[in-house]
What we know:
Layout: H1 15-36, H2 43-65, H3 71-94, H4 103-121
Helix pairs in contact: 1-2, 1-4, 2-3, 3-4
Amino acid sequence: MNQLEWDQSWSVGEDSLDSDHQALINIINRVMGDQEVNKPVDWVLQDLSEYVDYHFSREEGMLKSAGYKEIEAHINEHREFVEWLNTVKRTIETEPESRNYITESVVKYLKRWLKDHILQADMSYKGKL
Length: 129
């Protein structure tokens, strides 16, 4: 599976947020690498939890400070991501064997998040922070 590489066209114009997005790309690449060798990816749940804690908080704070008009919709997208992550965690907690089968689903969701949220929704605030 091809690894994702940061492209400058993905920049939202704020170095700290770009750095956060690059960190997510690194997580996605690690998950894809584990998928190739059939290695469970339950480690990603902790990494993603830490990621959403600092990134969503930082991004939402910047958007509020900038008076971003579409902030509620943006926050709702973040909440949907957290709900997905919590569902994955609960699934693994209640069905530990699922950690061996959930990798493909995690990869698909994270790639879709990159495409739909970071490369589209986040671009709507580019130049406004």
